[in-house]
Each structure stands twice: as C-alpha cells, then as structure tokens.
Amino acid sequence: MANSVVLVSFMALGLILMLTLTTSQVEAAPRAFFVFGDSLVDNGNNNYLATTARADSPPYGIDTPTRRPTGRFSNGKNIPDFISDALGSEPTLPYLSPELRGERLLVGANFASAGIGILNDTGIQFINIIRMFRQLQYFQEYQTRLADLVGYDEAQRIVSDALVLITVGGNDFVNNYFLVPFSARSRQFQLPDYVKYLISEYRKILMRLHDLGARRVLVTGTGPLGCVPAELAMRSRNGQCAAELQQAASLFNPQLVEMISGLNSDYGANIFIAANTQQQTSDFISNPGAYGFTTSKIACCGQGPYNGLGLCTILSNLCPNRDEYVFWDPFHPSERANGIIVNMILSGSTNYMSPMNLSTLLALDTNTGT
C-alpha cells in the first residue's frame, strides 16, 4: 500500500513537472509576426500570381542555403527575415503558400505583394497583385483560420500580442506619380498635395489594421527614392540622386511620422512606431565605405548604366561579392543592406525611430507581461 502511495505521488509530481515545462514552453514561444506591403517585404506571394512583378527565377536567392529563388526581391534575406531572426522565430510563410496551415499559422503570415502601393491604382501595369485592401481582407480571413485552430479567444490574443510590419508607399511615386510624364495622378495633384492625399489614405489603412486587432505595428517610410540604381539610370546624368523623387521622399516621410504620432495620441497608446528608412538608407548611400560597402550607386544584378535598367535575370551582369553592394537589383537592397536596416530598426536612436526603437518596444511588452 505504501509503495502504491509513493508511486502515485511520483506520478503526480511528474505530471506537475510536465505541465510546468509545457506552460513555460508556451510562454517562451515567439510572438506571431504579420507582414504587409510591397516588394521590399514580399516573401513570395507573387510566385502564386500571374504577374510580371515576381522574383522566382535565378539569380534571385543566390545566397540562400539552397541558392534558389524564394520569391524575395533579394540575393538572400529580406527585412522580414531579419526581424523574424530577432524575434527568435522561423520566417513567415507567404499567405498564398499551401504550406501555411496547421501549426504554421501560429508563426504568423506574410501578406505582402510586389508592385502594390497605398493607392489601388498604383502598379496597374503589374495587373494581378494583392492590393492593400485585399491584404487586409486576407488578414481577416487568416484570423478565422487561426480561430478554427486554437479557438476565438486565443486567436485574438495571438493577434494582439503579435508584431506587425507594414512597408508601403514607394511605389505610389515610382510606379504611379512619376511612372510616366504627365501621369494621371501628376495631372490631378501637385506633388505636395499628392503626398497629403497618400498620408490620408495610409492613415485609413493603419486604422483598419488597428480595427483588426493589431496593437504593435512597425511602419517604415520610403527610402531615398531618387538614389536607387533604376532612377539613376533613367533620370541622372551625373550620378546624383534624382531631385524630384528625393523631394517626394522628403515630403512623405516627415508627414508619415507626424500622422503616426497623431494616431498614437488618438488611441492613447504607442500602437505604431515609425522607422525613418530614408535616413537609415541615406547614411550608407552617402558613405558606403563606413558600412563596408564599395558602392551605393551600382546594382549587383542588372544591366545598363548603374546596372539600373530592366530586370535582374540570368543574363544580367552579376557581381561576385554581393556583400559589397548596397543594392542587389535596380530597386532593392542587398541582403547585407537589409540586415543593417533592421539593426537600425532594432536599436536605432530617435533620429531613426519614433517614438522608440523596436527593441525598446519589445522590452516594454516583456516587462508588462503583454
């Protein structure tokens, strides 16, 4: 009888220890991560669409472990990948991937689609892309799928505790307002008025994200639009950044920060944090050597002046050392540049991040147990 009592006691103790370990593992699980936006953050959704805005052929992905293209507009990792690393999580899958099911839903999802903008008429030349309104619809659909897996209350908790990244706006200039001379939007708006319109429409998108449960949202501005190799090739005669696109970025980014500050005031909490990617990228464009780059003007993969014309294909010029180049292709940063941008997002000063950097935000969440 005594042996039976001891056995039962050990079994009970073992069960308690098992439950304790299981609970600790659940508590230590990385937060979910959701991504919205354009080609800077697309992890491969466009692979599943009939569109020309895609990165599913070599030499894209040349520096991934498999050396195969993944749909990312990069030689390797993009910005969401480095953020996933910082979260201690596996990379998010594209929402359209058939692999996004079951337990993989707990990691989050990437809804981004190359070519899209804030406005629905941006990127119309790419035809079949996931515009912002549709990305938000997919997010709502995702939450239904998640609730079917873990229950409604737990799904709501996962979403509210998650980190959300949204990167959009650059295409509204390069693939809309400045796409062709006398574009429809440039005839409709003077540039300062167009920027105000974009900001007002962006505000609606961020408010909708909040309505859908997002409570920690990282919002990136546009980079130095006039300095990418594509614009140098098309608009620059002496290698200087294209002035009109630089003006657009200089108007857009401060107003974005101001709008985000206003939203946080309206909600009474720091829901949104803004990353000044224009300043971040400008630093290593103006002084590439300080960051270990040899050039910030010439793309690693491309053709024509600055390797800035056309698409990056197997027939393009291809640099042997991608780590020496700020830009991988005519529009997109190299893997190493993406890593530097994310380091600034994580630990940058208020010159780069407003009202705080991402590490500070995540630490606040940890300290408050949210």
Automatic annotation (TrEMBL):
GO biological process, one term: lipid catabolic process
Entries under PANTHER family matching the protein: GDSL LIPASE/ACYLHYDROLASE FAMILY PROTEIN (AFU_ORTHOLOGUE AFUA_4G14700), OS02G0617400 PROTEIN
Molecular function GO labels: hydrolase activity, acting on ester bonds
Cross-referenced InterPro entries: GDSL, GDSL_Est/Lipase, SGNH_hydro_sf, SGNH_plant_lipase-like
Coiled-coil parts of chain: none
Annotated signal peptide: 1-28
Keywords recorded for this protein, A-Z: Hydrolase, Lipid degradation, Lipid metabolism, Signal
Protein name per the record: CUTIN SYNTHASE2
Cross-referenced Gene3D superfamilies: SGNH hydrolase (3.40.50.1110)
Sequence similarity: Belongs to the 'GDSL' lipolytic enzyme family.
Keyword Magnesium: no
